[in-house]
Specification:
The complex is a heterodimer. Chain A is α+β, with helices and mostly antiparallel strands. Chain A is 32% helix and 26% strand. Chain A is built from three helices and five strands. The longest helix of chain A is centred in the N-terminal third of the chain and has 22 residues. The radius of gyration of chain A is 15 Å and the shape is globular. Chain B has four helices and five strands. A five-stranded mixed β-sheet of chain B has the order 1-2-3-4-5, with helices on both faces. In chain B, helix 1 links the parallel strand 2 and strand 3. The longest helix of chain B is centred in the middle third of the chain and has 16 residues. The N and C termini of chain B lie far apart (35 Å). Classes of the chains: A alpha+beta, B alpha/beta. Chains A and B meet through helix 2 and helix 3 of A and helix 2 and helix 3 of B.
Chain lengths: 148, 114
């Protein structure tokens, strides 16, 4: 299978979050994932888009969210970039810790990690890049990848 | 599809029938306004029927937590009814399933408030 790449640039708005989710759902379906996995991928992308729009770009109309989807038959690789100040990974709380369990926020990255096979978060002073990877034959199909 | 709610009273318990998506933005706001409105009217026994909620994101989960703690702090109780598999699974992986009192039978749920 040839590699298929699609790129999108979104405004820093709530509508972007819905658009990103819908696009991810469509591409994941076309890539051959089962319905449950499509939902997981779409939700991971939604959460990453929320982080980019709210926490990265802080709704700044002058800042964009860039999104790339790459499907090569083995993996679906989704890259989301914002133009914020860079996520501080040391400040991401464990939402499962007893002291955080009843907090009303802080679960986005946890859900992303739960639903994707690989997650790479690369913050810099000019923004954060989040790379989400789902193997076409992932854990649900009997693969050896770790599952959360 | 956005979130829709309707409320009804059964034996002193306010049942909030929710449908659609509880997500960042309108869905979470609708839930918050509904629960705050009920508390403002002194209706502190709240049963959230999530049987027609087919999607919830981290913001929606946060809103459920907020509703639960707000009602508890106000001297009331909030329980969940009829979770779909997706919502059930999300509450499981976030370890919130055991925090909420989750019911799958409305009559039993209503009786449990007394």
């Amino acid at each position: 299978m040839t590699t298929q790449r699609l790129s999108y640039t979104y405004d820093s708005t709530l509508e972007t979050v819905d658009s990103a989710e819908q696009t991810a759902s469509q591409i994941a379906t076309e890539s051959g994932f089962e319905e449950d996995v499509v939902m997981q991928i779409a939700m991971a992308v939604r959460e990453a888009a929320i982080n980019a729009v709210l926490h990265g770009n802080a709704y700044d109309p002058g800042k964009k969210v860039a999104m790339e989807f790459e499907a090569n038959g083995k993996d679906l690789v989704i890259t989301i970039r914002d133009q914020g100040h860079g996520l501080d990974l040391s400040k991401i709380p464990d939402p499962l810790a007893p002291e955080n369990l009843m907090k009303t926020s802080g679960r986005g990255i946890f859900l992303i990690r739960s639903f994707m096979d690989e997650v790479q978060i690369n913050p810099s002073q000019t923004g954060t890049e989040v790379k989400l990877i789902k193997h076409v034959h992932g854990p649900a199909a009997g693969g050896k990848e770790a599952s959360l | 599809m956005s979130m829709k709610v309707s409320t009804r009273q059964v034996d002193g318990v306010t049942i909030v029938d929710c449908s659609g998506r509880i997500t960042l933005g309108e869905g979470s706001v609708v839930l918050r306004d509904t629960v705050d409105g009920l508390l403002g009217k002194g209706q502190k026994k709240i049963l959230l029927n999530l049987g027609d909620v087919n999607y919830i994101d981290s913001s929606g989960i946060g809103e459920l937590v907020r509703a639960f703690t707000t009602v508890r702090k106000g001297g009331g109780d909030l329980k969940l009814l009829n979770l779909t598999k997706k919502v059930h699974d999300l509450l499981q992986i976030t370890k919130l399933y055991t925090v909420f009192d989750v019911k799958d039978d409305e009559a039993v749920a209503v009786k449990s408030f007394s």
